[in-house]
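Title: Comparing notes on inverse folding

I've been comparing how different people in this forum approach sequence design from structure. To keep things fair, I'm posting one structure and asking everyone to reply with a full sequence. Here's the target:
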C-alpha cells in the first residue's frame, strides 16, 4: 500500500469526478452515478472489515429488523449480526455449478417442511452471494458462506442463527451536488437512521435535563432497570449471559464524505443527530476511501486486478452485469479482497475515525462485538 498513489486526489469530490469521467461517462448524470457507486464501496469496505473481525458467521445482509416491542414495523438494515446456534460444514466435490440451497439440503438438519430460498450461493458465471440465506426456520435464518473454493471443490459453512440480532451496522453516505454546499437529503437520511437506532433495542435512551442520557431496560422477569446509559450498556455487554436482557442490540453506523457530514471545526446538525442516536458512530475518512479506490480499482497491483475488473465490468452501462456489491461479488475479486483486508488489517482500521462514544476506540468496538457474538 503506497501513499503516493492516492495523495494526488485532494478530496473525495475530486475522485468522484475522476470516476465520473473514466468509468461512468455513459450515464445521463455521470457524477451522480459515481456517487451511488461510492456508497456501494463504503458497504463493501464495511463488510470485509467485519470479516477480518471474525464475524463472518454472524452476518446477515439487508435483513428486516423489527422495532423492539412493535414487530409490525420492520426496518431494513445493511448488516445485522446474530448469535450462532449451530454450525455445519458442507463440501461440494466435484464442483458443479450453480450451487443452490437445494444442493445443501442434507448438509444441515433441514426440517421436512422447510421452504428453501432460490438464490444461488455461486452462479454459473462464478459470482458468489455473501451470507446467502438458505431458509428461515423457527429459530431464525440459516446462512451459508463459502470458505474455500477451487476448480475441483467448494467448502461451505452453514450457520443456524438467532432471529434477533445482537447488533446492527448501517452505512450512510450523501454526495454534494454541483453548485451546492451539501446534499439536500442529508438531514433526512440522518433522521431516518436516528429513528432506527433508537427503536430496535430493548435498552432505551431518555435524555435528562443535564443533557446526559439515562438508560431504561425491562428485564426478562418484568422488572425495570435504570441507570446512566453507557454504564447499563457496559453491564449488559460484559454479562456472562444476556438471557436476563432480552432484545438488547448494539447499534453502529458508518458515515462518509467530509463535505457533507462535518468539518474538522464543526460537527454539523446531521452528524450530531447520528452521534446521539447510535451507540457507535464511525467516520470513513476521505483518505481511507480514496486509498481503497486508487489501490484496488484505478491503479491495482497485479494481485488486485480481479477486483478492478469486477468493478469495471459491473459499471459498464449494461444491465444485469453487477458482480461487485456487498451481496453479489465475483469469486476472484472476493478472494483478492479477503487477502487484502487480512494483510492490511491494521492499516485499514486507521481509515476509520470514532465520532461516538467519546473516547471510544475501534479496538473497543471490535472487542464488544466479539463479546456479544459469544
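Reply #1:
Here's my take.
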Amino acid at each position: 500500500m503506497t501513499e503516493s498513489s492516492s495523495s494526488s486526489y485532494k478530496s473525495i469530490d475530486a475522485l468522484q469526478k475522476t470516476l465520473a469521467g473514466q468509468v461512468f461517462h455513459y450515464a445521463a448524470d455521470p457524477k451522480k452515478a459515481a456517487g451511488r457507486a461510492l456508497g456501494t464501496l463504503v458497504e463493501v469496505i464495511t463488510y470485509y472489515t467485519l470479516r477480518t473481525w471474525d464475524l463472518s458467521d454472524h452476518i446477515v445482509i439487508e435483513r428486516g429488523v423489527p422495532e423492539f416491542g412493535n414487530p409490525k414495523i420492520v426496518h431494513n438494515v445493511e448488516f445485522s449480526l446474530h448469535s450462532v446456534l449451530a454450525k455445519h460444514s458442507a463440501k461440494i466435490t466435484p464442483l458443479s455449478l450453480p450451487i443452490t440451497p437445494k444442493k445443501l439440503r442434507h448438509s444441515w438438519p433441514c426440517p421436512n417442511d422447510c421452504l428453501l430460498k432460490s438464490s444461488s450461493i455461486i452462479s454459473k458465471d462464478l459470482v458468489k452471494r455473501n451470507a446467502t440465506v438458505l431458509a428461515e426456520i423457527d429459530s431464525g435464518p440459516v446462512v451459508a458462506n463459502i470458505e474455500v473454493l477451487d476448480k475441483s471443490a467448494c467448502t461451505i459453512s452453514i450457520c443456524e442463527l438467532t432471529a434477533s440480532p445482537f447488533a446492527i451496522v448501517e452505512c450512510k453516505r450523501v454526495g454534494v451536488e454541483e453548485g451546492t454546499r451539501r446534499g439536500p437529503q442529508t438531514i433526512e437520511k440522518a433522521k431516518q437512521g436516528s429513528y432506527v437506532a433508537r427503536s430496535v433495542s430493548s435498552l432505551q435512551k431518555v435524555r435528562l435535563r443535564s443533557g446526559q442520557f439515562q438508560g431504561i431496560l425491562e428485564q426478562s422477569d418484568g422488572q425495570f432497570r435504570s441507570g446512566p446509559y453507557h454504564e447499563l450498556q457496559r453491564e449488559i455487554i460484559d454479562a456472562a449471559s444476556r438471557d436476563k436482557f432480552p432484545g438488547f442490540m448494539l447499534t453502529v453506523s458508518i458515515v462518509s464524505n467530509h463535505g457533507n457530514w462535518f468539518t474538522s471545526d464543526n460537527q454539523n446538525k446531521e452528524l450530531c443527530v447520528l452521534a446521539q442516536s447510535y451507540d457507535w458512530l464511525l467516520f470513513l475518512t476521505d483518505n481511507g476511501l480514496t486509498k481503497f479506490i486508487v489501490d484496488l480499482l484505478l491503479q491495482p497491483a497485479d494481485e488486485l486486478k480481479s477486483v478492478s475488473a469486477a468493478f469495471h465490468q459491473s459499471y459498464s452501462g449494461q444491465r444485469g452485469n453487477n458482480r461487485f456489491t456487498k451481496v453479489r461479488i465475483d469469486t476472484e475479486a472476493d478472494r483478492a479482497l479477503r487477502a487484502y483486508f487480512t494483510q492490511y488489517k491494521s492499516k485499514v482500521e486507521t481509515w476509520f475515525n470514532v465520532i461516538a462514544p467519546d473516547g471510544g476506540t475501534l479496538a473497543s468496538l471490535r472487542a464488544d462485538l466479539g463479546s456479544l457474538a459469544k
